[in-house]
């Protein structure tokens, strides 16, 4: 019997409707809404027309399809409207309005996430999400209900989930559609506790702390992975234990549901946790009789409710991966299991089929995100899976025992850490294999081809895998592909004029000015990646080093520029701070015998084939300006190409550059501020860049780069290249003109 896809179709329609509102620029909302309304009208007319015929002849298949499509358009329109309302409510509320003015305010709200420590070379900050209920600017006090992201000092590491706090800071615009503002709090300014968390959160905190304590003496990776497994897999624990205790049928589903509820309490009610709980519920339903069909229906309902309840989830990569993996397990895994089960034991066939199905379903999206296709994921999962259950169970038991007897909890935690040691070893060894992953184009054509290939493999391969010898031959071929190191292309490519180094979440650019010499613009957050990049490029002389501003993600690797290299001049921003970034740059320059000077608007230099002109900042910039607002912007010309290197310039600076240099057109654009959503979009598009480069770290917590920034550039014809997917990126001035080469 073929699966009933009606509910999943409605869920997909809702997803696409919400996605349209979040991706389409706001000035085109009216057009998107009008198209959906028109589709609704056409669908209604078709249904009414079919209805007159159906009244005599019964409901035809065409009439049922028309009704289904009408329902899908209606759901898409509803999700679109709710997403629009959510975005407008978030970014037009009083907090968002104050953020556009960079106002100082006192806020009262409830902590909605655990503190997350973000470290750099010179400092560390704490990131916390707070649901704000009151904001006071001194002139007025307003009641609100909106989320903000707080960036604060280490004293905030002690805030607890669920407690109500009062704090003061400067509001600034947020990059994420679900957040009204970012609040920057003084490093030494602690929050004032107004009310403590509820008893449930306190109990969950005690268990989490006990789990961490039970493995506190183990190596860092083990000590981190045991709590992560427990917090992320408590539903699995309860189901596994219930099966061991011979619980069956509906009671098994009840135990699993209780496990999911415990998981939400233990792992927090953040969006990712709610998403995981919803997918876990789908898995429980799939365990019942006729589970495949019920599971698909449950998956559709879960997606539909999540999108309507929180439309912003439609652009969440984690949400998409969860849904795709669950759908793959429900649709693809049974086919693979039955095929492999002809010559493998059923338990082994299922062990291979489930991770394979999940991986295949997620492969196109993963390739679009990372620019790579993993060839070892399924094998690594098979090897690691036997240790996951014991590690998770022992981790939770160690935490629970540790509440009453810490020493005994530590002994159990020691056993759990040995289990995760195997998981860590598998991960490291698998990732280090020569053919662990292969590069794949992240463009529309490349992803479309990969999607088609994935579908062919998912539903075509089982026909081949029914035969033992074919399965063994394919497995052997895959092992050989993974284990043999493929030949690497030359790096750097001949004729390179610019390389954007892969320095993680930061900037590090190199302009070639001749053999062994280059102009360096910024140095990333850490010396090691920048040192490796410069060494690989053979740079031994740096006639000019430019540090666009003193944020750590641009100057943290400054010492690499001077290490065993001769530096001629050093240019910096006109702004004096932040001090934690300025000090090390000055110290490194002094050790290199160079005195930095300010790069002011209008200053220019010619070094070999490179001519560079400073477009921003002006010498009269206020010292109170945010560091990004004072970021140096360079217009460079070399090899017949024009390159605009923008640092982290903000929209105000962009607007003033646009006014000062009207009609500016460039070949290559370094997208400002790692592709942040906070941009002068019209100016970026007006530059007419053929290539847009973004230096950004994988899995960064800032939402960089934003689709709302890159999509207009892509639509305008720019090729998008980004270091998180492509690794280091080289611009080549070849015989055929501008070329882009990547190192991954």
| Overall residue-averaged pLDDT value | 82
Structural class: alpha/beta
Terminal-residue CA separation: 44 Å
* Overall number of domains: 4
Largest sheet: 8 strands, mixed
User: Which percent bin holds the helix content?
Assistant: 40-55%
User: What are the low-pLDDT stretches, counting only 5+ consecutive residues below 50?
Assistant: 233-238, 240-249, 251-258
What do these coordinates show?
This protein folds into four domains: 6-91; 94-197, OB fold (Dihydrolipoamide Acetyltransferase, E2P), CATH 2.40.50; 203-483, no CATH class; 496-742, Metallo-beta-lactamase, Chain A. The longest helix has 31 residues, at 61-91. Helix 1 runs parallel beside helix 3. By secondary structure, it is of the alpha/beta class. The strands form four sheets. Strands 15-14-13-12-11-10-23-24 form an eight-stranded mixed sheet, with no helix packed on it. Strands 16-17-18-19-20-21-22 form a seven-stranded mixed sheet.
Main attributes of the structure:
single chain; 744 residues; 4 domains; alpha/beta
